[in-house]
Amino acid sequence: MIYRTSSTRATEKLAPKILHGLGAKHVIAMDGNLGAGKTVLVKGIARVLGVREVVQSPTFILMNVFPVHRERFTQLVHVDCYRITHPDELVNIGLPDYLNDPSALVVIEWASRIRTLLRGKALWVTISVADHDTRRIDFKGVL
Ligand SMILES: Nc1ncnc2c1ncn2[C@@H]1O[C@H](COP(=O)(O)OP(=O)(O)O)[C@@H](O)[C@H]1O
Ligand SMILES: [Mg+2]
To answer: Tens digit of pLDDT for each residue in 8-31?
Structure first.
């Protein structure tokens, strides 16, 4: 499924479609260059889940956990792999527990850096910059 958005707001508004596209999965793996709009999409997802705290790209933290009370989810786990050099860095801070917990919605930026941890589990979302305000957003089931 491919979408094109022409504003930040339009990208945030794709969140319900992505959540619907999850089916039985609970992991959203995002790829795309710096400034593509991954965090914008995470913010849209947080809003749908009723998370009030501001979701930012974790700067020094690799993983942020927010409590949620929405449908089947009790936690939103926001992971940013930009700074990691090895998937073990996320293993060491407990990511596998969340990947094995279907009540945790795990949303991962720069997910291809931890592809080995995600195999078969995630809905993959690739964002690319088409021009200044236009983004191409592609959802894929399995990678
Ligand atoms: N259609 C769009 N969708 C998402 N972001 C957009 C769009 N057009 C412009 N932008 C801008 O692109 C940037 C995306 O930033 P961010 O979400 O932090 O990127 P990433 O997390 O992928 O590095 C923001 O400055 C946002 O305002
Ligand atoms: Mg980001």
So the answer is: 999 999 999 999 999 999 999 999
